[in-house]
Specification:
The structure is a single chain. With about 190 residues, the chain is of the alpha/beta class. The radius of gyration is 17 Å and the shape is globular. It has a seven-stranded parallel beta sheet, with helices on both faces. It contains eight helices and seven strands. About 40% of the residues are buried. It has a single domain, classed as Rossmann fold (3-Layer(aba) Sandwich).
Length: about 190
């Protein structure tokens, strides 16, 4: 993997460990020679992951919609800042630039970005590894919900396995480096009852 997109909050949240782990993720990516693609802001966990990578000598590409750039939250120290017009264009560009995705703690935006990437993987539109960094149990409830989707017959186990979950950065990256996407079969067939 040469570039990883990180989705995370523009807020820092209530736990200091979220910022610590975001900073550490940026540092570890840089140390492993992996470039960071992220949302382009200098605030919250987004700013922390970018600063961690930059302080460790890493390459960082931010992708920011123009309407957010005008609110003066754009990070000014990046390797490159790509300004796009819409949120959808932002996700598409971040996908184009990366070889894998990691989600840190975040809110609605982080969830939306994560699940769109998972949906694209499920449909066979990409074969990139997708990881959740489960900082201090932040994603325990989401992991349980996804497992419930499988148990209730709304998600195939093979698709659940597309989402790698780990609380340790290095072991998550190791899982992602070894990831092999499942073959996507025809799961919707016309004429079947």
């Amino acid at each position: 993997m040469h570039w990883i997109t990180v989705f995370c909050g523009s807020s820092s949240g209530t736990e200091e460990i979220y910022t610590q782990q975001a900073t550490l993720l940026g540092q570890i990516l840089a140390e492993q020679g992996i470039g960071l693609v992220y949302g382009g802001a200098n605030v919250g966990l987004m700013g922390a992951v970018a600063n961690g990578a930059l302080q460790a000598g890493g390459k960082v590409i931010g992708v920011l919609p123009r309407f957010l750039q005008t609110k003066e939250i754009a990070h000014t120290g990046l390797t490159e800042l790509v300004v796009v017009e819409t949120m959808h264009e932002r996700k598409s560009k971040m996908n184009d630039l990366c070889d894998g995705v990691i989600a840190l703690p975040g809110g609605y935006g982080t969830m939306e970005e994560l699940f769109e990437m998972l949906t694209w993987a499920q449909l066979g539109l990409h074969k990139k590894p997708i990881g959740l960094l489960n900082v201090a149990g932040f994603y325990d409830s989401l992991a349980a919900l996804v497992q419930n989707m499988v148990q209730k017959g709304l998600l195939k186990e093979v698709n659940r396995q597309m989402l790698m979950i780990d609380s340790h950065i290095n072991s998550l990256l190791a899982q992602m480096k070894g990831y092999v996407a499942p073959e996507v079969g025809k799961w919707i067939t016309r004429g079947r009852t």
